[in-house]
Each structure stands twice: as C-alpha cells, then as structure tokens.
Amino acid sequence: MAKTKDAQTQLLDALVDELLSQGKSAEELLGQNGLLKQMTGRLLERMLEGELTDHLGYEKHDVSGHHSGNSRNGKSSKTVKTDTGQVTIDVPRDRNGDFEPEIVHKRQTRLKGFDDKVISLYARGLTNQEIKAHLKEIYGANVSTGLISSVTDAVYDEVKAWQSRSLDDVYPVVYLDALKVKIRDAGTVINKSVYLALGINMEGNKELLGLWIEKNEGAKFWLSVLTELQNRGLKDIFVVCVDGLSGFPDAIETVFPKTQVQLCIVHQIRNSLRFVTWTDRKQIAADLKPIYKAATAKEAEECLNTFAQKWDEKYPTISKSWRTNWEHIIPFFAYPQEIRKVIYTTNAIESMNRSLRKIIKTRGAFPSDEAATKLMYLALRNISKRWTRPLVHWQAALNRFAIMFEERVPLT
C-alpha cells in the first residue's frame, strides 16, 4: 500500500512539474476557465467512455463489436455543476439507448460535491441569494435560488432522523436553554424560542439531544421536550442545569423525579444586578462572590445572611431572590471544586448559543420554522465537530457520581 501511494505521489509531482514548467499563471491553472476545470471535464468524459466500453463489452473501433447488436452512437453535450464550478462535457451514447452512466446519471446536472458546497455555505448563514452570487463569482456557476432551496431542503430527512434517534439510557449532566430568533408566522415576523438540550454522556462528551421551536419559552413546553427525550430512551439524568425560568424545576421533576436541578449561578448573579445602580454594581458583585464560592451550603447561607444585613435596606429583592431559589442553587456544593465548574453554570450551552448567534445575526428573519430548523441543524452539526475531547476533570466527576448515585450509574 505504501509503494502504491509513493507511485501516485510521484505521478502527481511529475504532472505538477510539467504544468509549472510551461510557465502558466495561477489564473490559467485555477481560474474559472482554467486548466483544472478543463481537466475535470476531460476526466469525467474519459470515465464515461470507460463506462460505455464496459457496457458494450468491447473497445472503441474493436472489430469484435461488429454485429454485436449495439454500438456507439455519437455524443450529447451536457453541463454539470461540480464543487470546482460549472463544466460542459460530452456524454457518449449507444445505439440501443440503454446505456445508463453511473458517474453522471441521465438528467443529473450537478455532482455530489456541488451539493456539499451549497450546504456548507448555507450552514454558515448565507441566504439563498448570497449563495447564488457566491457560486457565480467564485465558480462561474449559474444556479437558481430554487435549486439551492431544493439542495438544502434535502437536509430535512436527515434532521427528522436525527431528531427522532434513540438516546442513551443515562446522561449524567444535561443543560437546557433557549434563544430567540425572528421567524415569519402567518405573514408577521415574531420572536420565537429555539429550545436546545445539550447532554454530557457517560464518556464526558457533549451531545446535542435535540432542538425545538415554539413561540414562547415556558415551563409547559419544556415539559413536552423532556417527555420527548424520555420517549426516545433517556431514563435518567443526575443533574440538569437551567436558567431561572419560573416553573422550570417543576417541569423537570415531573418527568425525572430523581434528578437534581441546578440553577445557573451566572444567571442568578445577572438577575441580582439587574436593578442595581451602576455605582453599586461592582461592590454587590464582589459581596455575592463569597456565597457561591463557599466551601459548603451552610457556609454559603451564612454569607447570604451577611450580604442581606448589608444590602437589604437598599436592595431587598436580591437576597429574597436567592432565598426563593435556594433549594436549586445549592446542589453544586455537594461536589468538589473542579466538578462545580461543570454543573453550576450553563456556560457550555451558552457558548454554543453564541456560535449560533454569530451565524444568524446577519439574517433579518427566517421565512418559516422549517428554514430556521434547517440552518440551526446544519450550524450545530458544524459546531459539534469541535467537540473532540471529554470535559476537563470528567473522570473525577464520574467517580463522584458513582458514589452519590451508585444504583443509577450504568455498569457498562
């Protein structure tokens, strides 16, 4: 195998040397009408000729083809779109008309690489019009927006399969969050919520469990999301990390009664600072820090009392908010410091949301829920390619889970 590869490399090097020795410019080699495109067309033609030879059973001009019952019958011109641009080729024909080429099928006007190029551009947030202009400018390919839509619409089958796939029995940690996008609905552009569920599996790897679109973010819809996850095979979650949405914990505990609900500390801090004057913000943030940096829940409560004595007269709603949510603020205190970073904030899913917002920020509004789902899925598929390593300190976290939830940790 190594020798074959060496021979191929030598052949390619010899071809490149020959091209460079002719003093051709980059435009002549790689431009819209350059040699590379011509070679692509010629290569396709040669492959089609080979297919026809195999179909007929004899080489061109071979006497064995005389009176064989079928023969070559000229060529027809055809333009196909490839990932390097638009190429016109001559497709050979047979007299009987039963030759069915495999390299470029009858009525096929684009090769697979071209579709991948369109989908890649769409996944980066380009509109159909922008993709059309890009393909024309860079590759010289004339493509209608209708064709672009049909190419990207083919993703729907993949989305449906992904959204209904079976899940693992257990995800130790799941993050739930939603972001707002503008979508046209019944002729009016409105803000809708894109619900996202990001799981950490037993190996410590991130896995997006699904995405859903609804007019408003609410605990009732989250209940349907969690029920769907359960119906797809998810039996248990150790810790769910959420923001401060009212009714959220109840929705989670309805479907997964053994699950610990951890409110995002970062959200809690943001909410605390929401109505604080600019001059007091820095000091209040500093005074809140001892609460969530405490070693134990008891110490944290003492720090909250200290904070209340200092600030309740001026900002009574802050300590009240922490006490109201206290049951779902303190679960992370049961874990070592390195594990707390995994579960006390929804930063993992918010980081993903920031990447999504970069992609959709240039779009005015999506024409439909389906268009938004299509782009979100493709963008998330690209984002997930970066999830190549388990979370830091995951083995330590898993060992702690095994102690705390011994009977619920899968054996394999």
Give your account of this protein's structure:
This protein is an alpha/beta fold and 412 residues long. The protein folds into 3 domains: 28-60 and 69-155, no CATH class; 169-263 and 350-412, Nucleotidyltransferase, domain 5 (2-Layer Sandwich), CATH 3.30.420; 265-345. The chain is built from 18 helices and 7 strands. It has helices at residues 2-21, 26-30, 35-56, 112-123, 128-139, 145-153, 155-163, 219-231, 248-255, 265-273, 278-292, 297-311, 316-324, 326-329, 337-343, 347-360, 369-384, 394-404, and strands at 72-82, 85-94, 170-185, 188-200, 206-214, 236-242, 260-263. The strands form 2 sheets. Strands 5-4-3-6-7 form a 5-stranded mixed sheet, with helices on both faces. It has a two-stranded antiparallel sheet with strand order 1-2. The longest helix has 22 residues, at 35-56.
Give a short synopsis of this structure:
By secondary structure, this protein is an alpha/beta fold. The chain contains 18 helices and seven strands.
Question: What does the secondary structure layout of this molecule look like, with pairings?
Answer:
Elements: H1 2-21, H2 26-30, H3 35-56, E1 72-82, E2 85-94, H4 112-123, H5 128-139, H6 145-153, H7 155-163, E3 170-185, E4 188-200, E5 206-214, H8 219-231, E6 236-242, H9 248-255, E7 260-263, H10 265-273, H11 278-292, H12 297-311, H13 316-324, H14 326-329, H15 337-343, H16 347-360, H17 369-384, H18 394-404
Parallel strand pairs: 3-6, 6-7
Antiparallel strand pairs: 1-2, 3-4, 4-5
| Strand ordering within the main sheet | 5-4-3-6-7
Average pLDDT, rounded to a whole number, is 83
What is the N-to-C order of secondary-structure elements (H for helix, E for strand)?
HHHEEHHHHEEEHEHEHHHHHHHHH
Total count of domains: 3
The CATH superfamily of the largest domain is known as Ribonuclease H-like superfamily/Ribonuclease H
Percent of residues in helices: 40-55%
User: Which spans have pLDDT < 50 for at least 5 consecutive residues?
Assistant: none
Structural class: alpha/beta
**Can you identify the CATH class of the largest domain?**
Alpha Beta
User: Which descriptor suits the 3D outline?
Assistant: elongated
**Which quaternary structure do these chains form?**
single chain
What does the main sheet amount to?
Answer: 5 strands, mixed
- Rg (CA only): 30 Å
Span from first to last CA?
A: 38 Å
Instruction: Name the beta content range.
Output: 15-25%
CATH architecture descriptor of the largest domain: 2-Layer Sandwich
Could you tell me the CATH topology label of the largest domain: Nucleotidyltransferase, domain 5
